[in-house]
Amino acid sequence: MKRLEVRNMTKTYDEGSSTITALNNVSMEVDAGEIVAIIGPSGSGKSTLLSAVGALLQPSSGSVIVNGKKIETLKEKELAKFRLNEIGFILQTSNLIPYLNVLDQLLLVKKMAGKVSSADQQFAKQLLADLGLEKKLKKFPNELSGGERQRVAIARAFMNDSSVILADEPTASLDSKRAFEVVQLISNEVKKRKKAAIMVTHDERMLTYCDRVYRMEDGVLTLQS
Ligand SMILES: Nc1ncnc2c1ncn2[C@@H]1O[C@H](COP(=O)(O)OP(=O)(O)OP(=O)(O)O)[C@@H](O)[C@H]1O
């Protein structure tokens, strides 16, 4: 059983008299410890695919299966829980909360899910240390560089120990040195913590850190390498 499977997924949008096919019979698999890239032109359906895998959008047909469970079978309440516990998102910009320090950015995820244990505190510190931020625990976002902020966002995505990590152009706001660092760190954590990760990127230089590369064109996904 693969950690993540997408089976024959189609998403259409009705636009008056015409229909846009954002995803056209897309299938892919990502196993634990794998990071795959999706490249492709603007408007080809990459964000739509990430949204569907992250249970933020319902496909018109097809399935997303995480740890053998079809997410379309989940009810609204279970879906919210699924998003919180099984999906970690890393976005283009770090989206940190301005009035929380670095450590609290991570602990907020736990506060939302219930309460913060000392094991949670330890885990958060361990993740931040993995990402080279052990000296920045008490800093606020405006006291960090762009690369540091993005590393906090990566640590935060791993904080709920989800099965799946979804990264939507995580290097878009970084210069190329920082971009390499950030993708390498994501890849290392994915392998160390046995996540199934999908990264959408426009930057072909980042593909060296990925196990497979898929190309999206007009809603059709093909394996490139
Ligand atoms: N809510 C919506 N209603 C109608 N059409 C939509 C909607 N969301 C996306 N689309 C269309 O679906 C197609 C795929 O869009 P999507 O955002 O997935 O592309 P993308 O590959 O992520 O693009 P980019 O690289 O520019 O972010 C596009 O034609 C887009 O216009």
UniProtKB/TrEMBL annotation:
Record keywords: ATP-binding, Nucleotide-binding, Transport
SMART domains tied to this protein: AAA
All residue ranges annotated as the ABC transporter domain in the record: 4-225
PROSITE patterns hit by this protein: ABC_TRANSPORTER_1, ABC_TRANSPORTER_2
Molecular function via GO: ATP binding; ATP hydrolysis activity; transmembrane transporter activity
CDD domains for the chain: ABC_MJ0796_LolCDE_FtsE (cd03255)
Taxonomy, superkingdom: Bacteria
Any single GO CC term annotated in Swiss-Prot or TrEMBL for this entry: membrane protein complex
Classification via PANTHER family: CELL DIVISION ATP-BINDING PROTEIN FTSE, LIPOPROTEIN-RELEASING SYSTEM ATP-BINDING PROTEIN LOLD
Family: Belongs to the ABC transporter superfamily.
Name of the protein this chain belongs to: ABC transporter ATP-binding protein
The species this protein was found in: Lysinibacillus mangiferihumi
